[in-house]
Amino acid sequence: MMRSPNWSSKILKEETVTSTNDRLAELCQEKEIKEFTTLMAEYQTAGKGQRGNSWESEYGKNLTFSTVFYPQTIAPASQFILSMAVASAICTALAHYVHADCLQIKWPNDIYWKDKKIAGILIENDLTGSQISQSIIGIGININQEEFHSSAPNPVSLRQITQKETDRMEVLNSVLAHIIDLYSRIENRETDIITKIQEYYLKAQYRKEGYHPYCDAKGEFTAKLIRVEPDGHLILKDKNGSLRKYAFKEVKYLL
């Protein structure tokens, strides 16, 4: 059963930060911060995304937040399960507002509505020896923004999709509840939970059917998505039948 904690005591709000990941990391260094503490900001001056990209978000219109976790059972070699779980949880939460079949996960951890990006995830793990000592999970979700002005090629918001305003705190509480539910089941070593998350993640993959254009260090090519391995590697098959294996930042989807 999904946990329903009192989130009000765990959500910290700030008006403006450089990035919620950086600010929450600072707080964790300054004092003891309880697990699941979430920092939400109305605006980020240097919001971060994958590949060093910036994250555009109009003041007070969207969700930009980070949550801290202290995993006890997730080994560094298995840390990609966190990305899978968080992406799956966001899709599940957003399916309350838009049709679930339109929500997909673009490897490694962007959330797409059709061919447009509605959410992004940035996970920063601190390792101590053979253990993840701290994981700060940053999430940006486009909620009520009506226009985007950055160079990002394909953003979209719930407002643009549904043509109505959405309660940001309602979305935040739902996303957090789904994330913590999956995370707790992983930490409790629930039977088959990792397999279930991996299956959901693969089933929800963006462009999982057919051949599509990509680009790597050698240039552009066309390939079919075969699978995402438990450690996060993307496996593609090109039109010559050759399998190609990629780690983060080694291949780019051409949109």
| Helical stretch tally | 5
Looking across the biggest beta sheet, what order are the strands in? 1-2-3-7-6-5-4
- What is the makeup of the main sheet? 7 strands, mixed
Stretches with pLDDT under 50, minimum 5 residues:
1-8
What general outline do the C-alpha atoms trace? globular
Q: What is the domain tally?
A: 2
CATH topology of the largest domain: BirA Bifunctional Protein, domain 2
Q: Helix coverage percent of residues?
A: 10-25%
CATH class of the largest domain: Alpha Beta
For the terminal residues, how far apart are their CA atoms? Answer: 39 Å
What structural class do the secondary elements suggest? alpha+beta
* Global mean pLDDT: 92
Commentary on this structure:
The protein has 255 residues and is α+β, with helices and mostly antiparallel strands. The protein has 2 domains: 11-204, Bira Bifunctional Protein, Domain 2 (BirA Bifunctional Protein, domain 2, 2-Layer Sandwich), CATH 3.30.930; 212-253, SH3 type barrels, CATH 2.30.30. Helices cover 24% and strands 32% of the residues. The protein has 5 helices and 12 strands. It is globular. Mean pLDDT is 92; it is low at 1-8.
Task: Output the keywords.
255 residues, alpha+beta, BirA Bifunctional Protein, domain 2, SH3 type barrels, seven-stranded mixed β-sheet, 5 helices, ligase, Biotin_CoA_COase_ligase
Secondary structure topology:
Elements: E1 11-17, H1 20-30, E2 38-44, E3 63-69, H2 80-94, E4 103-106, E5 110-113, E6 116-128, E7 131-141, H3 158-162, H4 168-187, H5 193-203, E8 211-216, E9 219-228, E10 234-238, E11 243-246, E12 251-253
Parallel strand pairs: 1-2
Antiparallel strand pairs: 2-3, 3-7, 4-5, 5-6, 6-7, 8-9, 8-12, 9-10, 10-11
Helix pairs in contact: 2-4, 2-5
